[in-house]
Design goal:
Order of helices and strands: HEEEHEEEEEEHEEE
Structural class: alpha+beta
Oligomer: single chain
Number of strands: 12
Largest sheet: 8 strands, antiparallel
Length: 201
């Protein structure tokens, strides 16, 4: 009986010691979890500051692909413009001076049609790059295209030729010519608002 009594006391003591150890450990677990959350939030913040930016679509020149007021996520991290990319461009002063429709320092969204060394021409609304017609399933038209024809031009080094997907409602390289790659702010990656259209572009 005495042996049993001692045994129960030892068990009770062991249970209490384990409970005390858990209580002592709990603040450390809470601290570790808080630290993990803070690190995660810091990484997300740094990524948003240095790797990604947000912009809002203004106007209808990309209608069919992007609509006015949509919020986009863009990035220029190790980015070189490629044909087919949807990009955000900072308007150069001389272009803004020549076209009052554009505001100085305004950012516009267009699609890269051709890059340096490529030749672009338009015949009856069909875009040709290096003599081959582009398959442009993204193009949207809802009226008369005032630039359905354009004599071939070769894109200069360090420049890109851009056009809006809404072909008859886009002020783009057909009018103001090629743009300097250095004015490309970044490539459009995702549509983040509205949520109903969230996803890659």
């Amino acid at each position: 009986m005495d042996n049993n009594q001692i045994s129960y006391e030892e068990i009770d003591r062991e249970i209490e010691e384990r409970a005390a150890a858990k209580r002592k450990k709990r603040p450390h677990e809470i601290f570790d979890l808080t630290e993990l959350v803070l690190i995660t939030l810091s990484v997300i913040l740094l990524c948003s500051l240095f790797l990604f930016r947000q912009t809002v679509v203004s106007g209808g020149s990309m209608e069919g692909t992007l609509s006015d007021g949509e919020r986009l996520l863009i990035s220029d991290f190790f980015y070189t413009p490629k044909a087919g990319d949807v990009v955000v461009i900072q308007i150069e002063d001389e272009i803004a001076d020549a076209y009052p429709e554009l505001t100085r320092n305004e950012a516009i969204i267009k699609r890269v049609i051709a890059t340096e060394g490529q030749t672009v021409g338009i015949v009856r609304g069909v875009v040709y790059v290096d003599g081959s017609p582009l398959r442009e399933g993204y193009v949207f038209r809802d009226g008369h295209d005032t630039k359905a024809n354009m004599a071939p031009v070769t894109v200069s080094e360090g420049h890109v030729f851009v056009m809006g997907d809404h072909r008859n409602s886009s002020l783009d390289s057909r009018y103001f010519g090629e743009v300097d790659e250095r004015t490309v702010i970044g490539k459009v990656l995702f549509r983040i608002l509205p949520f109903s259209r969230f996803g890659g572009v």
